[in-house]
């Protein structure tokens, strides 16, 4: 029995999310089905982070166990042959038995893309959040500073979150404007259910002038006692960028730093 890790990229538009669900098409189902075709075994995969319906990924990492021996290129080409065009295996690597895609991870990184224009984009409509009102990113940058470090993020999770602890360590939270695009780049040890999308929705309320910068701190300190974050940013603009692991596992990079360097 060998354990393999895969790097997976996908467009989440047409899926119910990562996790398998009855009567709905998921990314996990498609990958496991393709792996079964290649290995002739029933395979269960474990992922680094479950993404919601409509959320995309550049650097999802999964692992699974199999009795089948294949060249790495054979796994990649074979699995991709049976995957829909919206899902792609980018790399495969044998890993030690103590590697776990979720529990071995030391950080996760997401970005959220807002198309900030009064006119929507036909091509990017399902890949961004089209927000018409102008966003002042200086206000958003100042507000984002309140969320750095280790905090209780109870106010930024949704009902149904199964996480035992609500404390998370935020390593960076950058807000960048590139023309009509506002990009929110966030990295933490882990995230709770809807956490990134709720943070984005709060930053947008500050950026459009609806709330002052200090309001973000007030929301954080409320620890969810008041329903201050009732709106969740749409899933279409969210991208799971990468997962970091201890160096001894030698997990390949997603290559995202070429697009969004860590300043």
Give a quick account of the main beta sheet: strands, pairing sense, barrel closure: 10 strands, mixed
pLDDT < 50 stretches: none
Whole-number total of structural domains: 2
Structural class label: alpha+beta
- Overall body shape: globular
Please tell me the CATH architecture of the largest domain by its name.
Answer: 2-Layer Sandwich
* Topology, number of strands: 10
CATH fold title of the largest domain: Alpha-Beta Plaits
At the fourth level of CATH, the homologous superfamily of the largest domain is Pseudouridine synthase I, catalytic domain, C-terminal subdomain
CATH class of the largest domain: Alpha Beta
Q: What series of H and E elements makes up the topology? A: EHEEHEEEHEEEHHE
Question: Termini separation (Å)?
Answer: 42 Å
Family: Belongs to the tRNA pseudouridine synthase TruA family.
Domain Pseudouridine synthase I TruA alpha/beta: 9-103, 143-246
GO molecular function, one term: tRNA pseudouridine(38-40) synthase activity
Organism: Candidatus Blochmannia ocreatus (nom. nud.)
């Amino acid at each position: 029995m060998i354990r393999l890790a895969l790097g997976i990229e996908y467009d989440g538009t047409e899926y119910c999310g990562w996790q398998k669900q009855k009567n709905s098409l998921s990314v996990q189902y498609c990958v496991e089905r393709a792996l079964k075709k290649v290995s002739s075994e029933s395979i269960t995969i474990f992922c680094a982070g479950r993404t919601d319906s409509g959320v995309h990924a550049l650097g999802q990492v999964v692992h699974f166990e199999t009795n089948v021996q294949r060249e790495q290129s054979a796994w990649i080409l074979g699995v991709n042959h049976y995957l829909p065009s919206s899902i792609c295996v980018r790399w495969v690597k044998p890993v030690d038995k103590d590697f776990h895609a979720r529990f071995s991870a030391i950080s996760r990184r997401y970005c959220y893309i807002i198309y900030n224009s009064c006119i929507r984009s036909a091509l990017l409509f399902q890949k961004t959040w089209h927000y018409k009102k102008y966003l002042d990113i200086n206000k958003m940058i100042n507000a984002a500073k309140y969320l750095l470090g280790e905090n209780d993020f109870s106010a930024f999770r949704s009902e149904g979150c199964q996480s035992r602890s609500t404390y998370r360590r935020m390593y960076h939270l950058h807000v960048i404007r590139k023309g009509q695009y506002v990009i929110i780049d966030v990295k933490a040890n882990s995230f709770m259910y809807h956490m990134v999308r709720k943070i984005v929705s709060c930053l947008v309320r500050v950026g459009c002038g609806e709330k002052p910068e200090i309001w973000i701190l007030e929301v954080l300190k409320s620890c969810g006692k008041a329903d201050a974050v009732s709106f969740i940013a749409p899933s279409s603009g969210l991208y799971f960028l990468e997962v970091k692991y201890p160096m001894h596992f030698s997990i390949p990079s997603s290559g995202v730093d070429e697009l969004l360097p860590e300043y």
